[in-house]
Amino acid sequence: MRRRLLLAAILTLVPAWGCSPAGPAGNPATPQQPAAVPSALLPGAYIKHVVIIVQENRSFENFFAGWPGADAPMYGYDRPCKPTERCKRYRIPLHETTFKGLDLVHSYGSALIDVDGGAMDGFGRPTLGQGRVTGKAAYAYVKHALIAPYRAMASQYTLADRMFPSELGASFTAHLDLIAGTTDLTPQKALVDTPTGTPWGCDAPSGTITWTVTASRVPRADGPRPCLDQFRTMADALDAEGISWNYYEPAVFNPTGSWSAFDAIANVRDGGDWARNVLASTPQTNVLTDPAQGRLASVAWVTPDFYDSDHLNSESDTGPSWVAAVVNAIGESPAWNSTAIIVLWDDWGGWYDNAVPPNLDFRGLGIRVPCLIISPYARKHYVSHTTYEFGSVLRFVEQTFGVPPLGTAADGYTDARANSILDAFDFTQAPSAFVPIPAPYPAQYFLARPPSYRVPDEQ
After folding, report:
1. pLDDT digit string (tens) for 272-313?
2. Which label site among 6, 173, 247, 258 has the fewest CB atoms less than 10 Å from its CB?
């Protein structure tokens, strides 16, 4: 009830989000029609492994404000009053912050407030605990020294400055979009935010339900149990073609020891894929040893331990080193010459971002997140301005392995409409030799450290 009242109060402050203004010059506000790929440049001729590393709760500006060549100014705009009131919109410089602090609100409703109809000036208004508003806390970038491994990756490879989650809101739907490209229950109704109980999936407690949203953009707690059979996933597509896949997840304390987007997919959770592709990859640190032993699957998702997630509540600076350890494990293995690694963050975490999300449907797009594309064929020292969404990653997987789209755009599958990340690659260049990413915490640190036994995110 408290959450329902809070959402109702928030949404009464938000004007209807109509067609968003265009992005910066040269950055279209809506995805272009995906172009045909010349057969000589199909990624499958060069790429045999696609690894998707998913971190938590950071906007592009929060990590890459001021990055040369990127749409990332060192300031934002704030309008601290309610949309129904008149007050001055003012420019606010971004301040330096660390991995410590109070978690910011990042629900569907708060995203609408942040976007403010395309003005991108509402980040100070979502309400924290005890009625406090976010204020200036959201207008921040993380100290460069703390994210040095990410900045090294961006310097060497491709940094995408227009990656948007396919849906506004929190982590549950973001993780589903990265395996399914949709959260639609019907063409007019989608999942939103998080289930009412944890874990998020078929192992949730009895009585757990999901929140939904429709074109009214008012979330309601009227969805099904988070054990879903309403849409296809990449597990269906990859299994049908005999393509190997793994989902590296952390060990956590719940009935199954699982924190996986596939726990919410009934035919995976209750089928052979669960033991073969999910539990076999638990704990997530197996990804640090599998590449050298020739066990890297064709497609892999990698999620972190809570401490390594970049989540503000973790108050830990090990996330960048964790990602560097995964990249180094692949880079120093025989798999490097045929691998593409995509590093992204599941949602913006409440942090300020200046890029207007394209308004493609009632689900989103969501507020911009960082994206790194790492491969011996990735464009070097490059900033991609192509508009991507999470379906863009799935589209690249489909192009690489000759897999058809999960469904049509009319049925809500974003992989069918999204631009592929293919333009971040140059297959006419010789594959580059791997140069290890420096990091303060080595791989052995993660292999030796006991698990936190905490889920990476609960919002």
Report:
1. 999 999 988 889 999 999 999 999 999 999 999 999 999 988
2. 6
